[in-house]
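INPUT
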Amino acid sequence: MDNQTYLVQQFTELSGALTDFNAFALNGTGLVQCYYDTLTRLVGHAIVEELLSTFVSLYESASNHEQFNEALRKHILGDEKFGPVARNIIKLWYTGTWYQMAHFWRDAYGMSEEDMTFFVNSASYAEGLLWQAIDANPSGAKGPGYGSWSAPPNIHFDNGWQFKPFTHTSK
Amino acid sequence: MSEANSTMKQVTPDSAVQNSANGKYDAVIIGSGISGAITAKELTAKGLNVLMLEAAPAKDMSYKGFKSYLSNYYENASKDNNSPYPNNPNARMPRSTDVSKLKPGVADAKGYLVQNGPLALDSTYTRVTGGTTMHWEAKILRMLPDDFSIKTKYGVGLDWPINYDDLMPFYQMAEREIGVSADVEEQGFYGIKYEPGYVYPMHGLPPSYLDKIVAKGIDGAEFVLNGETHTVKVRPFPQGRNGIPNERYNNGQGFTPVGALSTYQVEQGGRCQGNNNCVPICPVQAKYDARKTLVAAAKTGRLDFLPQAVASKVVVNEHDNNIQHIEFKHYASTSSTEHTVHQVHGKIFVLATNAIENARLMLASKLPSSSGLVGKNLMDHTYLLAWGLLPEAAGTMRGTKCTSGIADFRHGEGRKSQAPFGVDIHNDGWGWATGSPFSDVESLVDAENKFGRALRQSVVNRISNQLLFAFMVEQTADESNCVTVDEAYLDALGNQRPVIHYQLSDYSKAGIAYSRHTSKVFFQRLGAKDFSSYSPLDYGHFQYEGEDYYFRGGNHFSGTHIMGTCAANSVVDENQKSWDHNNLYLVGSGSMPSIGTSNTTLTLAALCYKTSKHIIETLSQYSVGVVSDSDYKIAKGASHE
Ligand SMILES: Cc1cc2nc3c(=O)[nH]c(=O)nc-3n(C[C@H](O)[C@H](O)[C@H](O)COP(=O)(O)OP(=O)(O)OC[C@H]3O[C@@H](n4cnc5c(N)ncnc54)[C@H](O)[C@@H]3O)c2cc1C
Ligand code: SF4
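OUTPUT
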């Protein structure tokens, strides 16, 4: 596996842990590569790689999901540098929107000029995970069919993300 | 204009001017919204020649143009009502995002509408080909019979010179043109009646799951008002969007819905797919918009359509006070203000640019009418929003914006002391009030610090459980609410912009306050947590009896050229003909002396059928080549294929 593929795979796993949608669901949106590219373009390769390697080491040292979540909160979401990036990854997946980073972050870590609030592309809007979470179609796209709104929503967590204790053979 | 649809014959300004000088046009219609489109379709079907001026470009008549609206919409982070439509400085339109809190005594001119206050009105309309129906919601209600005589019955507002019975046949015609989905059995309440055996063109749309949950909780709730008991029942709304055709329609002949418009028939204009995006734009064109009517008019070959032509002045003949010509400004491109000025002539003139623009054009032409009422009596529905979280997932964010509501506060003696209202149950949750669902994700992630399973579960609880009631409250005629013009405020072509003067009466406020009271009872019965709040910083904020409220504009501008019984009390007669100018018609909701608790479009469409009939009768007296009734029917029938 080349480095690029490896990074994208780790990005997918991190996204899964943050959003609670597994790799299968994320890949189903067709947007993994696009979001990875958007992220690296906007916050830079160095920070992304640092974030992913932090994620990998947290993953490897946790023995269960609870422990892992605690570490994730402390060392990524609660980290001055990584926190805003991680929250942007969540919002990107849930809404298809890149949100402009906070001022202090831009000052501290030097942001790209492209860092504005925008829909990544027209597919990203329609593929927002929030719609899947609530079993609704994105407003304005993917019409579910006449009368479908009359039935109760089918809300489930079947494609949720699972923590699997790390073993050195699993990669 | 290169993308023009092959079915729309467009003319150049020069040939329109030439044709009109040669006496070709029986009617010159200004504006291609539903009012202008219906009038054009009726007149051309009868063999009359029509020139239509439209301020906007017409490239959206093609499928490609329509697609570009859609991708504008998807990529536009601010999804306000007009977000799919590009800015056009030559024919600007209001945008709700332009509205902010007014400072007392200071006019706010940052949007197209100059807000003179005291309250800011955030209602909008769309200046594109097809007009505001391009982004309307398409709830399509008849008015109640009582609504036509509120002055006589309740001592408030103004009476109409005609009544429900007079409009009944025209309501039918409007329901056919728009293609209404509804069931008569569910709509005949509080005096609404139908011709025996009448059915709507299509069956009613199924209610949403959310509607059913709400109905279970609040059906049967009783409220006593002025000694009368109002018992609540959740009912479906008639919809201007394609459902399942009713085979019993038209004495068993059935109904063929009109689908997507394009040169190549795309497989899309079928039934409503539940995209929940009717405002601002229906991606599959299941929702009616006026281009459907416009294309039918164009098919007669008797409609000359001139886009990018902004009517700028109505010019009167001194000797008989008739309209001599209309002046317009034609621009070649939306990116430049360069334009040429022209005049067009016709036997009659129809202003169909909507309630604000009709008044604006008349006033800019220094034609306030002998009654002085042009621009006065500006009305709109005022909305109060109340939002809460249900104890269970209700499937919010699915289906059309709104499938059901409550009609039980629209009628009754209570109207003597407070404004009546209809209620919408919003399938799109808190969107209107808070920007849901995006704002929910933002606050769950950024403020509540959720991630992973806890986030996903909270997204469900926060969004799928949402319930928003929108209370649509009647506003009655009041001359101090008005639109004016002012040389100080010009658009890019030098046309005067509308200035809005707007406030709420105690009658309105009492209705709004009572609607809030009913929302609290509903939330109690549903076990819902009430999240409504009305900040003093909100631009629509007001206080009533010590409580805070805010209102939102209903996008139903009306009353600016009311109809009445004589030239002294109104601008137009019951056929929307100007009292002062014998060959001029002002059509649309501007003619309505009262608006009741029904969204205005079905009634204004019915009025346009009445007007068209009158125009056809009038012109046939001048032996214009009006075709016989049987040809007329064939032309009308054919246009539905
Ligand atoms: C968000 C929203 C939701 C709505 N939902 C509903 C609903 O659910 N039910 C309902 O009944 N109503 C609804 N309405 C109201 C409805 O859209 C209007 O009542 C209706 O479209 C008015 O039609 P009209 O033809 O009179 O005017 P418009 O549709 O406004 O058309 C006027 C036309 O004239 C053109 N024009 C303007 N000025 C000039 C000029 N100077 N020269 C040449 N052309 C000019 C414009 O470009 C436009 O094409 C809604 C409105 C909005 C904004
Ligand atoms: S719900 Fe969707 S498909 Fe139906 S009319 Fe609205 S936008 Fe069109």
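end of record. Chain A touches chain B through 50 residues (CB under 8 Å).
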